[in-house]
Amino acid sequence: MAKDVAFNFSGQESIKNEKLIYPAATRNQEPILQVLKRFLICDVDSVEDEESPLFLEIASGSGQHVAHFAPHFPGVKFQPSEVDDSLLGSITYYAENCKTKNILLPKQIDICKKLSSYGFEENSVDYMYSANMIHISPYACTVGLFENAGSFLKPDALMITYGPYSKDGVITPESNVQFDASLKARNPAWGIRDITDLVKLAEQNNLTLMDTIEMPANNKTLIWKKN
Question: How many domains does the chain have?
């Protein structure tokens, strides 16, 4: 029997008490996957292998991204996380229905706190990933993201961030200028962050910007490497 489907006030499609479907995540998940295929390396075929790498997603939202990515990397353990407990049910739905069974149940993580608070050891994470969090959260969350990446990623491991960014104080195109204004109208602590500022923050946390990849809809994927 089909589930009941509705749209909530933010335009996201939801299936009652189960999964959420964000139209934006549906649109961008495949372009992001193509980027991940360039950078994720896994030499094992199953998460049962003790060498299976760990991919930690911060701010998983609905859980759609990790659900889309995981089947393409069956040897990678995907750990979703979210600070908003109202989203954990949706993420759990996607994890439990992943055919490759390589998505762990979500952790409720506040990225402003050290990941050791949630059972992670320093230098233990192979990949960190965060999409559309940096501009839709206070800057303290970005600081926490980079500080945790600097401490908990393995040496030479990668952090991958996705979203709109400005460069040298300039936001382009005009649609992103308007988007930035709308974010700040909702919450003055939100807003599009500048790559130049992020590079400085990265350097303070033993990270280097390795690549900048242009994405659809005026977004970018940034690849950060731990030194």
Answer: 1
Strand partners, 14: 6, 20
Q: Which of 37-71 are b and which e, b meaning 16 or more Cβ less than 10 Å from the residue's Cβ?
A: eeebebeeeebeeeebbbbbbbbbbbbbbbbbbbe
Confidence of residue 14 (pLDDT cuts 50, 70, 90): very low
Structure token digits, residue 46: 């199953």
Range of the domain at 30: 22-226
C-alpha distances out from residue 34 to 38, 68, 206, 221, 225, Å = 7, 11, 27, 11, 19
Flag whether 54 is in a domain: yes
Tell me, yes or no, whether 203 lies in a domain: yes
Angle at 91 between CA 116 and CA 194, to 5 degrees: 65
- Cα 60 to Cα 170: distance, rounded to the nearest angstrom: 28
Cα–Cα dist 135/137, whole Å: 6
Q: Does residue 146 form part of some domain?
A: yes
**pLDDT, tens only, 53-109:** 999 999 999 999 999 999 999 999 999 999 999 999 999 999 999 999 999 999 999
Phi/psi at 198 (5° precision): -70, -35
Give alpha helix (H) positions in the chain.
23-39, 64-69, 88-96, 139-152, 174-186, 195-204
- What CATH number corresponds to the domain at position 27? 3.40.50.150
The vertex-59 CA angle with 210 and 182, nearest 5°, equals 90
Q: Is position 4 within any domain? A: no
